[in-house]
Design brief:
Blueprint lengths: L2 H4 L7 E3 L6 H9 L4 E5 L18 H6 L2 E2 L12 H17 L3 E6 L2 H9 L9 H16 L4 H10 L5
Parallel strand pairs: 1-4, 2-3, 2-4
Helix pairs in contact: 4-5, 6-7
């Protein structure tokens, strides 16, 4: 049974490695064989104007092979691995809907990991515990009579708060 039949997202090829190892050459050769689009997973190439220092692909290759994830933000703007993962998920869907093979290419392993595995698996919210914690926090901040007792209970047993 294939990924689509199991409901799993399709696998995406990933080419990773440090600057200068030949990732761009692999992409150029691959693009001669089938229609691919590159999702850049490079934490520096997202910045506009940093072309030389980040070894962005040459204009000739960018004209032949669509790339996303380049020149996304201005230098000085914040762009996180979490934002990359959200953007890349949308880019992958767009590339697939255009009938092209997406390929994630870059040297920032943290970006690739954020896309492939996510960054944080949040446990389900416990509404009752959350409310008890809110009441305890309000009492502590107000300096109420129960605050010191609540504080010592919290240290001895997180479930008692």
């Amino acid at each position: 049974m294939g990924e689509a039949e199991r409901g799993a997202p399709p696998l995406v090829p990933v080419i990773v490695g440090p600057t200068g190892v030949g990732k761009t050459a692999v992409v150029a050769a691959w693009a001669a064989l089938e229609p691919i689009s590159v999702v850049s997973a490079d934490a520096r190439q997202v910045y506009r104007g940093l072309d030389i220092g980040t070894a962005k692909p040459p204009d000739e290759l960018l004209a032949r092979v669509p790339h996303v994830g380049l020149d996304v933000v201005q230098p000085g703007e914040r762009y996180s691995a979490g934002q990359f993962a959200r953007d890349a998920a949308a880019w992958l869907a767009e590339i697939r809907s255009a009938g092209r093979q997406p390929v994630v290419v870059g040297g920032t392993g943290f970006y690739v990991r954020a896309l492939a595995e996510g960054l944080f698996h949040e446990p389900p919210l416990d509404a009752v515990r959350r409310e008890r914690l809110r009441v305890w926090t309000a009492a502590s901040l107000a300096g109420g009579a129960s605050a010191p007792r609540a504080r010592s209970r919290w240290r001895s047993s997180p479930d008692a708060a």
